[in-house]
Amino acid sequence: MSGMVITRRRLFGMVGVGGAAAALSACGSSLGEDEPAGSGGGQGAVKVGLVIPQAGVYAPLGVDMKNGWDLWLERHGGKFGNYTVTTVVADEGESPQTGVPAAQRLLQSDDCDVLVGIVNSATALGVRDLVTESKKVLLVANAGANDITGKASSPYIWRTSFTNGQVAAAMGRYLGEEGTTGGVFEIASDYAAGAEAVAGFRTAFEAGGGAIAGSAKPPFGKTQDYQPFLSQIRSSGAAATFCFFAGAEAVAFVKQYRQFGLAETTPLYGSGFLTEGGVLAAQGAAAVGIRTALHYTSELDNQHNKDFVTAYQEKYDVVPTVYSVQTWDAANVLDRALRSATATDGDTLSKALEGVGAIDDSPRGEWSFDGQTPKQKFYIREVEKKGDGYVNAVLAETDAVGQDG
Amino acid sequence: MGAWFDANLVSILNGAAIGCLLFILAIGLSLVFGMMDVLNLAHGAIFLVGAYLGWHIGGQDPTWTTFLLALAAALGAGLLAGAGMSLLTEPLRNRSHLDQALLTLGVALVVAELLSMAFGNDVQAVNAPPGLDSTVRVFGSVYPTYRLVLIGVGVVFAAGLWILVSRTMIGAVIRATVADRDMVSTIGIDNRKVKLAVFAVGSALAAIAGVLGGPIYGARPGLDSTVLILALVVVVIGGLGSVRGALVGALIIGQIESLGRALLADAASFLLFGALAVVLVLRPRGLFAGATR
Known about the structure:
The complex is a heterodimer of chains A (405) and B (293). Chain A has 405 residues and is α/β, with parallel strands linked by helices.
């Protein structure tokens, strides 16, 4: 199946570059202003291994990521600079047990030049040595563990997504500045990402003068019913709740928060994954009024995002998510790097990535690499009903911050 | 005591609601395992079939018509699935539990994959039918109406099953089969038919539990194995093949998952299996295993 897609993309690349470039300059892409040809980069072919979950609980994220990737290539003639792109997809699955072998296969049997993707932080950390020893660039397009570009960093591993602490700190700063009084209850799934989020939130919130009223850590993957924790929040007397949940747990928590009457008394705040994409559709009316921080929402009012959302909806008939934007941007930075790079090996490409500067045409707004992870703005978003569905409307935006928020 | 009760009333109530749902889920597993010695690891998958039927037929906001329609569809699908499982496991009846576990686990994996192909991998949530999707105040605490009603539904199911098993001829055959399968065949009752019937009804109850559990658990990939583990723990704690055992086991697990987690929040991960370990040490055959044997 993916073979067919590639063929179609190649064809598009051969016959469609002129038309695509014209269309792109019309929609304000930087490609029009800055022709790739003749800017000093090499040419040839680049083979990209896309490691995304195609089965298991993260599969919906994999769909969004692939959509973002495919859309970028389709709208840019299937090329990074003067390199024709071939994409090979491998299934990351749910855990490093499936994700690491998938990455290994892409590097060793499929001979990919670059890896893009990876949802699970444990998988990203698990492929670190593999990627470093093979001297190939990995662009992490989701996994948010601080260590990936912190303690366990590698010269070859770059990230186009976020760090868990960075997202939560944006919420903590916002609530601190709002002068929220009466204490905030922290609740997060009991695993590494939850702990990083809570730590990031607490540091920023306390620095802003906020107080923590209590905390709870529901077992990760083993909690279907949040009533005991909701009772705890109620009896703590907290004025608000900060939470970190994703996927099925985000749906269950938000619905039960409403069902047990807490939504009316104790406003809910969280990292934006709580209400992003498919989970928001499932939460429906229960999510209205929830405020979250994230580096993207489909509601952003900038021209690059409007073009992106329109094109995305035309092609896939759904609204893009932060996960789509992260792979779209991975393609975008690879394009920028390969316009100046003269080869596709890890050292050359890493050097080129260092020099890409500001990504000024991203749907999320302008961002740049700080170290090897984005320095970017965060948006405070509130869930609202819009038409038949629900969206994360923009309330405020923060200054651009790096790894540690 | 009064203050403690007030503070934890919601947890106790919620434990009863979850317990009732677990009872409807686990009773089929308990009877099939206890009677015919067949370990059906596809039981959770049948629950998930029910959950997806509820979501597919009623959507996110079911009406009473679609909700009842979903229950009827789950009943039909569960009966068929149970009959199918009974026929499938028939050749293995004299083989070890491991062979049965492999077969039924295989079925569970295939069913889960088919559901994922049919309904996608997104998490689906279902609301309670109109009138039950609100909250009520119980002694000053807010509680979802649907869960309160679920307790009543569980009581009705438990009473009905108890009467069926202990007061009717059918029940006598079922109890006799649990006690001594061979003796039942010698008096001329084909225990393959008894097995087929119990398997079908037990699976139908699991599928119905899937619809009833929709407003609490939703429908999503992976839910099948989560509820299967809960049901297995209920069966092991309560003892095999008894309605009373499954009911008590389910209510205990409901309270552990609810009141236990509220009181011992830091030990939440260990409570369920901790309780299981305690029961296995003190009563290795379950709390009520002796009752019907």
